[in-house]
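Researcher: Here's the sequence for the chain we discussed earlier.
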Amino acid sequence: EEARVLNNIGLLYDAWSDYTTALAYFEKSLAIRRKIADNIGEGITLNNIGNSVKIRLSQTFRSVYTFPSD
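Model: Thanks. This is the structure I predict for it:
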């Protein structure tokens, strides 16, 4: 239950574009899920971490590289 709540809080921060805080909550959730051997929950949290990191990298890429428009 605690791991699920932490994961959901992470999703809220992710939706608010606060990726650092979101990842902190995901990591807390992941630690609990690994400790209790919740493989399905672990997969869900790892997926959320991947999505959050992907969004952050995408934004970083766009801010570093500017492409000319036709």
